[in-house]
Specification:
With 145 residues, this protein is an alpha/beta fold. The protein contains 3 helices and 6 strands, in the order H-E-E-H-E-E-E-H-E. The strands form 2 sheets. It has a 3-stranded parallel sheet. It starts with 56 loop residues before the first helix and ends with a strand.
């Protein structure tokens, strides 16, 4: 096989569709846009969710509930995920390992067992996580409190 014998796979390359080039092309006259109306004109744009003046679904459906804009969201880590870590554990180390996203607040939950003494620093701890860390001979420290 030589370089001049190479060619793309059959059917992988298609010619660009040139619209509005006469009736023989199959896409002449209205160029595949149907007849008349706003959608057939150049420059037509429609807002997402626009239903032609009918009351849109998002406004027809009743609104319920409440969203607290001051809510603090935490990245959650279980003790089972900390089992393969050694010594000092901080949010930066957890982010480097891919357990949490960097720059987020971290909460440690007590699911799983800790086999060794770890020194864990995080923004929040559950009661069970604190108890299990202390039982394993480790310690915990909350940031910002």
């Amino acid at each position: 096989m030589k370089l001049n014998e190479l060619s793309p796979a059959k059917g992988s390359k298609q010619k660009r569709k040139r619209v509005g080039r006469g009736p023989g092309s199959g896409i002449g006259k209205t160029s595949g846009r149907g007849e008349k109306g706003q959608k057939s004109r150049a420059g037509y744009q429609s807002r997402p969710g626009f239903e032609g003046g009918q009351m849109p679904l998002v406004r027809r459906v009743p609104k319920r509930g409440f969203t607290n804009i001051w809510r603090t969201e935490y990245e959650v880590v279980n003790l089972a995920q900390l089992a393969d870590l050694e010594g000092e554990v901080t949010p930066e180390i957890l982010a480097d390992r891919g357990l949490v996203r960097p720059g987020r607040k971290v909460k440690v939950l007590g699911d799983g067992e800790v086999g060794k003494a770890l020194s864990v620093t995080a923004d929040r701890f559950s009661k069970s996580a604190k108890a299990k860390l202390e039982a394993a001979g480790g310690r915990w420290e909350e940031l910002g409190t």
